[in-house]
Amino acid sequence: MYNLNLIKQEIEAPLEVKIEEHPIEFNATTYNNFSGLITHQRTHLGDMPFKCNQCDKVFKYKKDLVIHLRIHTGEKPFQCNLCDKAFANKPNLVTHHRTHNGDKPFNCDQCGKPFAEKKYLVVHQKSHTREKLFRCTQCDKAFTTKQSLQYHHRLHNGERPFQCTQCYKAFVCKPHLISHQRKHTGEKLFQCNQCNKSFAQKGYLVVHQRSHTREKPFQCTQCDKAFVQKPHLISHHRTHTGDKTFKCNQCDKVFAEKRNLVGHQSSHTREYLV
Fold it and tell me: d(Cα 257, Cα 176) in Å, to the nearest integer?
């Protein structure tokens, strides 16, 4: 026979439940809270709960929506400390900084050419695999993009639509004009990360950095000499071919290199001074 009083006491006694806290595991990724798990699950489910009220674009994460909204507001809170450019997000600022320090972390696995941004590497890599469909009708050159062909055509027809307002020099494309204008403003955006020397153009920085690395990528095919810059190699080639393109306007003496002509012309100046 059951003891009803004992049963009643057992029913009314507080229930002790031992709860052990374990992190939630989901697809080899561990989370210590439910919110983190829910956020992660969106990557699997394709759930995009954050919607832009300006253009109806949707996002998985709130932080991505916040960054996107800056397109509409024009807000650019990440300011470059070397120039006046600003950006909507930090990764773009980090990428931009490479234009100043010459850092090129993305290397082509076909030819070793380095790039500051991955998107430029991707475009370049297509040049190894993609056929050059855009061929110039005036010479034998071909290009992988239509825009490159358009720039090239301007060299033939003399079209230079981008003109400097300071000296009226004109260029085939806008980036060349922007680079040129720094000569007038004295702006030097490209800084060497070895000695902090600055340059107005990126090409000058690249050449300068070879003074630190001792790199001489332009090799003569006739002898074992190598050069830091291509113009120096071209000038050197004339010593093999005998080509002398630089002519003195005082005595008609000719030289293979311009620097030798300049040195020679000073001899005429000294004659006048005597």
Answer: 27
Q: Which helix (H) or strand (E) holds 258?
A: helix 258-273
In order of 71, 131, 223, 232, 271, the CA distances from 219 in angstroms are 48, 28, 8, 10, 39
Q: How many CA atoms lie within 13 A of 27 on its CB side?
A: 8
| Dist CA 262 CA 247 (whole Å) | 10
Pair 192, 205: CB distance under 8 Å: yes
Residue 31 φ then ψ, to 5°: -130, 140
Would you list the domain boundaries of the chain?
31-101
DSSP secondary structure code for residue 126 in this structure? H
Residue 189 to residues 98, 120, 182, 209, Cα–Cα distance (Å): 10, 20, 9, 15
Produce one character per residue of 230-258: b if its CB has 16 or more CB atoms within 10 Å, e if not.
eeebebbeeeeeeeeebeeeeeeeebbbe
pLDDT tens digit sequence for 145-156: 888 899 899 888
State pLDDT tens for residues 194-250.
888 888 888 888 889 888 888 888 899 889 989 888 888 888 888 888 887 788 888
Fold that domain 31-101 belongs to in CATH = Double Stranded RNA Binding Domain (3.30.160)
